[in-house]
Amino acid sequence: MHSSPNIPQPAQIAWRHGQPYALAFDDVYFSTDNGLLETAYVFLQGNDLARRWQVLQTQTFTIAETGFGSGLNFLCAAQLWLANAPATARLHFISVEKYPLSLADISQALQLWPTLAALSAPLLKQYIQLINGMPSVMLYEQRIELTVLIGDASAGLQQLASSAMPAVDAWFLDGFAPARNPAMWQPALFAQMAALSTPTTTFATFSSAGMVRRGLTAAGFSVSKKPGFGKKREMLFGRFSAKHAAA
After folding, report:
1. What's the whole-model pTM score?
2. Residue spans of the chain under pLDDT 70
3. For residue 220, which of 174, 193, 208, 245 is within the disulfide window of CB 3.0 to 4.6 Å?
C-alpha cells in the first residue's frame, strides 16, 4: 500500500477567527462551535468506539477516513484508543486526503487543541514524510499505525480494496460538505466502502444530505439519523448490512 510520491496540490488555507478555512471548498475544517467535541460526538460516539475497544477481541482494528484535514479526527481517535483498547492491540488509521495541509498550517491548526499536544507532536515530526510518499508511520509506542493516501477518495479506497488489507471496522465520512464537495460523495465511494466492509463495520458522518443517505443505503448500509452537533440539525450513522443494498 503506497501513497503517491507527488502531492497533487496543497490545501489553500485562509485563517478566519483563528481557524483554518478551505478556500477551494468555501468551508470550515471543523465546527466553529467546538471541533474537539464535534469529533467526539460524530465520529467516536457515532461509531460506538469506546465500548467496542473496551471489549475488543481482535489484535487489530481499522478505521478508514475520507479527509485527513487537520488530523483532529485521528488524534481524538488515538487518544481514545490509548485509553480504552488492550495494550497488545494495534489501531490502523487510514485516511485519504486530496489536498494535504502544509506543515505550517497543520501545526498552527493543532495549536488550537493544547490537550492533544502530547499526541500531535509525534505526528507533526513525521508529517512531511507521511504526505510525501511514506506508506505509513508507527506512533505511540507502536500501538497505532497511520496511513495517509494522497489523492481522490474513490481512488484511494480502490487502492485499499485491491490490497490484502483487512476489512475496515469503522468509517469516518468527513471531507467537506456534499454541496461544496460533490466530487467526493459519489456512488463509487459508497460502493468501495461496501467492498471493504463486513457485517460488523460501522460508519458515522456529520452529513445528513439525502444523496449521502441514499448512496449509503444503495451500497448496503443501514442508515440511522440522530441530532447533529452544534448548528447541524441531523447526522447519519449506521452499519454495513448487504441485505439493504439496492437490487
Report:
1. 0.91
2. 1-8, 24, 26, 29-33, 175-183, 243-247
3. 245
The yes or no reply on domain 31-244 and CATH 3.40.50.150 is yes
Q: What is the 3-state secondary structure (H, E, C) of the chain?
A: CCCCCCCCCCCCEEEECCEEEECCCCEECCCCCCHHHHHHHHHHHCCCHHHHHHCCCCCEEEEEEECCCCCHHHHHHHHHHHHHCCCCCEEEEEEEECCCCCHHHHHHHHCCCHHHHHHHHHHHHHHHHHHCCCCCEEECCCCEEEEEEECCHHHHHHHHHCCCCCCCCEEEECCCCCCCCCCCCCHHHHHHHHHCCCCCCEEEECCCCHHHHHHHHHHCEEEEEEECCCCCCEEEEEEECHHHCCC
pLDDT digits (tens, 9 = 90+) for 152-193: 888 788 888 777 777 999 999 986 666 666 667 788 889 999
